[in-house]
Each structure stands twice: as C-alpha cells, then as structure tokens.
Amino acid sequence: MKKAIILLVTMMMTVGILAACGTGEKANKKSGDKKELVMATSADYPPFEYVETGKSDEIIGFDVDLAKTIASKLGYKVTVKDMDFGGLVQSLKSGQADFVLAGMTPTEKRKKNVDFSDIYYTAQHLVVSKKDSGIETIEDLKGKTVGVQLGSIQEGKAEEINKQVPIKIENRNRIPDLIQEIKSGRFDAAIIEDTVAKGYFEKEKEFKGFTLSDDPEEAGSAIAFQKNSDLTAKFNKELKKMKENGELQKLVVKWFGGEQ
Ligand code: ARG
C-alpha cells in the first residue's frame, strides 16, 4: 500500500514537471497584432543589462534599449529572458530565443553556431583587483587566482595569461560573483570588460584595474541570431542607420556617460 502511494505521488510529480516544461515561451510568437521577438540575455552586466537593486525586477540597460529601438522600427515587440551567459548560444540553437543581446563578442567559435550583426560597441579587457593587491602587470599575476565569467571570451584571455605566467583560473556564472570573490579574498583578480568594471569602480572604492590589451575591437559586442535567420540583415540595416543618424551615440551617452 505504502509503495503504491509513493508510486502514485512520483507519477503525479512527473506529470507536473512535464506540464511546467510545456508552458515555456516559444520564440517569435505573435501577441495581439504586434509580432514579438524573444531576446535572451545575461542580466548581470551593468550598464549593458541589469536589474536595479531595490527597484522593479525589470531588466534595463544599453542592450535592452538598443534591442527595443531596432525591433520597434521593424514592427516587433521585445520580451527579455534572463539566463546565465554560458547558456545564451544554446538558447538560439534550441529556438528559445530569436536573438541575443548581452555584450557578446563575435568569435569564430560562436560563429559556427550563430550569426552576428555588425559590432555596435567596442571594449577592452581589464584585470580587476583590490587596490592593495600589488597587481599592476601580467607578471604580478604569477601564482594568483584569477576569476572569469563562465563561457565568456575572458576565459580564453585567462588561458593566454596562463601561458605566460602560471595562474589558477576559476569561473563563475555571474559577474557580481566575481566581484564578491575578490572582496572575500578567494580570488586575487578577475578579468572583466572595461565598461562594466568601471561601473563597479564607482561603487566599490577598494577596486582598481589595468588594461590587458589595447585592441578595442577584441572585446566588441554584436547581436547574435539563429543561423541563417533573416533578422540578421534586417537588424544590421537598422543598426547602420542608427550609427549614421547619431541615435546609437545617444544611447551610448545615456548609458555609458558619453565615452567613445
Ligand atoms: N564580451 C564578452 C564575451 O562575449 C563578455 C560578455 C558578458 N556579457 C554578459 N552579459 N555577462 O564573452
């Protein structure tokens, strides 16, 4: 009898889980008379995409504004989906998202699985540490623990450093976790893009950083799409217009305070 009840409960739970999976949003659906596109992002990246603490749980930022501006010109509404950075490419492959805007850099490896728009913003890699860490150059990282975001191109940067001087590489899913690990002393440093790192420098006075490479294209951001999506060309066309008519620059000033 007891066994039968356990079996029954297990079966009911399985059905429940399956039902919950089935309600997952489908990308590119119609809502009302306006078409809707699903944007996937990793909302741990102020000022690109983040949730303001203490305010609503709405995801805001440069990327969200850019997505909404382009999409609305094309007659689409945007729904933003938050996930870990490491799952973004897969969300396009599985059709869970129509595009990804997440400060993502178009790398050769990613291009095997997704298509990219032109670059809309350029950035550099920064080695971030506590002001009293004594870390001023790559050599100073010798034997140190260096954090990077899982699935980011900063992982590759850390491996490059490791070829020059031996370091211990650690990864985390979210940027705030990297910051937290430096604060607590578990990490000596982390590799984070300049625009995002500078935001943390304003809040966290005990942090500093130095630039890892001076090629700003190296960490440039582009919009990612499903392979062969017809959205790529459409978005690119609008992006180009926004670059030419100053609209993109306006967004840069709004979110990055006028640099670049
Ligand atoms: N540009 C880097 C990359 O493509 C890091 C982007 C991280 N973005 C984020 N939303 N956390 O790997």
From TrEMBL:
An annotated Gene Ontology molecular function = ligand-gated monoatomic ion channel activity
Q: What Gene3D superfamilies does UniProt report for this protein, alphabetically? A: Periplasmic binding protein-like II
Record-annotated Ionotropic glutamate receptor C-terminal domain positions: 36-258
Instruction: Say which domain of life the source belongs to.
Output: Bacteria
Which locations, inside or outside the cell, does it occupy? Cell envelope
- Where does the UniProt entry say this protein principally localizes? other
Could you tell me which PROSITE patterns the record lists for this protein? PROKAR_LIPOPROTEIN, SBP_BACTERIAL_3
**Which GO cellular component terms are attached?**
cell envelope; membrane
Pfam families per the UniProt record, alphabetical: SBP_bac_3
Name the family the entry cites: Belongs to the bacterial solute-binding protein 3 family.
Cite the PANTHER family for this sequence. Answer: ARGININE-BINDING EXTRACELLULAR PROTEIN ARTP (PTHR35936:SF17), MEMBRANE-BOUND LYTIC MUREIN TRANSGLYCOSYLASE F (PTHR35936)
Q: What is this protein called?
A: Amino acid ABC transporter, amino acid-binding protein
